[in-house]
Specification:
The complex is a heterodimer of chains A (289) and B (304).
Chain A: H1 2-9, H2 17-46, H3 50-54, H4 70-78, H5 81-112, H6 117-129, H7 132-145, H8 152-158, H9 160-175, H10 180-188, H11 193-204, H12 206-222, H13 225-230, H14 238-244, E1 246-247, E2 250-251, H15 253-273
Helix pairs in contact in A: 2-15, 4-15, 5-8, 5-9, 5-12, 5-14, 6-9, 9-12, 10-11
Chain B: H1 3-10, H2 19-50, E1 53-56, E2 61-64, H3 68-74, H4 77-108, H5 115-121, H6 130-141, H7 147-154, H8 165-193, H9 197-205, H10 210-221, H11 223-239, H12 242-247, H13 259-269, H14 273-298
Antiparallel strand pairs in B: 1-2
Helix pairs in contact in B: 2-14, 3-14, 4-8, 4-11, 8-11, 9-10, 11-14, 13-14
The chains are: A mainly alpha (289), B mainly alpha (304).
């Protein structure tokens, strides 16, 4: 009875409600399971003891009465993982602020119009195309020459290489969908470009700024390759920390899984904050004015 | 119609502009351009310069050798195989992920209970660093600790990413799809919200069936987001390193050894900067040319 209730609540317009809705619900459940299963497995490994993991404990179900939280305690308090989390928070947040502060005016410049804008735009995108490993050494020398090696600022600046093109792209897509007639109203009232940017463009681009900020933050939080050479002991990030669990003497699977679970939390909190903008902010200019 | 010509009409200006007029928009772009020059162009020039030298590994000396490194790369089966694997990986992943992302977006565009929760859930894989994704899937798919081999054991399949190249590639494809298809689905969902409902309604009135509406109304409207999604995914597939390295480390043997691993090994391990630099530029060149072709053949409007 419960199932039929739910099915008929999924309004479908025409008469053939039930089979179609059942099919949709079936697929959605499959999708949710596919997304969650690898995460659930990581969680399961994180709360099993070393002995259980190596004894080939592969049951899907966990024994709720004997969950083992040692891995979390070990990772957080003995491996100094809290420092890594703090470092990553500083770098990711700093990079997000810098990228958005640069990307909003940059996208606005494209909206105002530039000579050769298509070529400039593509050139900007090529910066994101380069695999980080391609730039690893030259960027290392460059950052060292600036005296920024092992500093937060070094990473914050370098991450712009892949985050700034993405943010400009996403924001320009949002901004070009804003009808120019709205700008005109501001100009008629005696406003200039800056007034248009502050009064029209930024308020109307909010979903893009929110989602762009979220994704930029996540890309920065998740980045690994540049941290290999650009961090020192004091500024090591979570991704450095995770890589540490793969040692020459073997992998600490339980701790690795616990660290991975911890790593997800800030991103999930941030995602839930901008949740309602997630879909509307990703149109990349598909909405025609 | 481009923004420029629209503005030109609105303000009664011609597109040809004076110097202060040109600076009008440039000043907003300048700080970003500065970043790209310093951290983008300078390193590329450095790599270009380095790529003209041949190093002798142990003496630590180098000699100028023009394009010899590039010649070495093109004539080395090892590097060309890495290129081939990379192209195969990118192509196969795109062929799997693009339709899947669109399919999921269409599914989540239906009415059902808990829709917004499921949509938010799509962000979940993006909150995990690729290093951890690789580690997670290693836990999930490897012999000994993995769920996948445990299940497949029951049906008599000996799943081993450490020994069977096909199994290793299957694991990579599953991992990458799990990690990135949700973002594609979100982008396609955003595109779907921009399809005017009036278009769909009038097609319905004209007696079009679901498939016809999808093919003739929805799909053309998804062209912009489709090309954007394709470009983003192509770039990021070429960039993929962390997760693949964690999951297979290029193995078994060299069967999943892609260009990025090749670059890291050449530059860091063999201490052959010249060849590594040439390989880096070679890779960058391929990506840029492919993306340029994509934009120009598919949909130039994406850049305008």
């Amino acid at each position: 009875m419960g199932v039929t209730d739910r099915v008929s609540s999924a309004v479908d317009g025409d008469g053939r409600v039930s089979i179609r809705s059942l099919g949709v619900q079936f697929l959605v459940v499959g999708l949710v399971a596919a997304i969650l299963l690898p995460m659930y497995w990581t969680f399961a490994v994180s709360v099993r003891s070393r002995a259980e993991i190596f004894a080939g404990q592969r049951n899907l179900l966990l024994d709720v009465t004997s969950l083992n939280w040692d891995n979390y305690a070990n990772v957080l308090f003995e491996q100094g993982y809290l420092d890594f989390v703090l470092n990553s928070l500083i770098v990711a947040t700093g990079n997000t602020i810098l990228v958005m502060v640069l990307a909003v005016p940059a996208a606005y410049a494209f909206r105002l119009g530039l000579r050769g804008s298509k070529d400039i735009f593509f050139w900007i995108l090529t910066n994101r195309m380069a695999p980080p490993v391609v730039f690893l050494l030259p960027v290392f020398f460059l950052v060292s020459a600036m005296g920024l090696n092992g500093t937060y600022l070094g990473l914050i600046l370098v991450y712009c290489l892949f985050n700034l093109p993405f943010a400009i792209w996403l924001l320009y897509g949002i901004m070009k969908a804003i009808p120019p007639e709205i700008d005109e109203a501001v100009y008629v009232d005696g406003g200039n470009d800056v007034d248009v940017l502050l009064e029209v463009i930024i308020p109307l681009s909010k979903p893009g700024i929110a989602v762009g900020g979220l994704l930029v933050w996540l890309f920065a939080w998740n980045h690994y390759v540049f941290t290999i050479l650009l961090t020192s002991g004091d500024t090591a990030t979570i991704t450095n920390g995770i890589a540490q669990f793969f040692t020459t003497v073997g992998t600490a699977w339980g701790q690795l899984a616990a660290a991975t679970m911890i790593t997800m939390i800030p991103g999930l909190v941030l995602a839930s904050l901008v949740q309602r903008h997630i879909v509307t902010g990703l149109t990349f200019g598909a909405v025609k004015a | 119609m481009s923004t420029r010509s629209m503005l030109g009409q609105v303000y009664g200006r011609t597109p040809r502009v004076s110097l202060p007029e040109r600076l009008r928009s440039w000043k907003y772009l300048f700080p970003s351009v500065l970043i790209f020059v310093v951290f983008g162009i300078v390193p590329v020039l450095w790599v270009l310069y380095q790529s003209t030298f041949v190093w002798s590994a142990f003496a630590g000396t180098r000699r100028f050798a023009e394009l010899q490194n590039y010649y070495t790369i093109v004539h080395s089966s090892e590097h060309m195989l890495a290129l081939g694997r990379t192209l195969l990986f990118v192509g196969a992943a795109l062929a799997i992920q693009m339709p899947l992302g669109l399919g999921i977006a269409l599914l989540l565009n239906q009415a059902f209970r808990g829709r917004s929760v499921v949509r938010t859930l799509l962000i979940l894989p993006l909150t995990i660093p690729p290093v951890s994704v690789g580690a997670t899937w290693l836990l999930f798919a490897r012999e000994g600790t993995g769920f996948v081999p445990g299940v497949l054991e029951f049906v008599g399949i000996d799943f081993s990413i450490g020994q069977n190249a096909l199994h290793a590639w299957t694991a990579i494809m599953l991992m990458d799809a799990w990690h990135w298809v949700p973002l594609l689905a979100l982008i396609f969902l955003a595109g779907l919200t921009s399809v005017p409902p009036s278009l769909v309604e009038s097609a319905k009135i004209d007696g079009a069936n679901r498939f016809e509406i999808f093919w003739h109304v929805t799909l053309p409207e998804l062209r912009t987001v489709g090309v954007v999604a394709l470009l983003i995914r192509t770039m990021d597939l070429f960039r993929a390193y962390d997760s693949l390295w964690m999951l297979t480390g290029g193995g078994p043997g060299t069967s999943t050894f892609v260009l990025n691993m090749d670059i890291v090994r050449t530059v860091l391990n063999a201490a052959n900067y010249g060849l590594g630099s040439a390989l880096s530029l070679f890779t960058l060149y391929i990506i840029v040319v492919l993306s340029w072709l994509m934009v120009n053949t598919l949909y130039q409007e994406v850049l305008q």
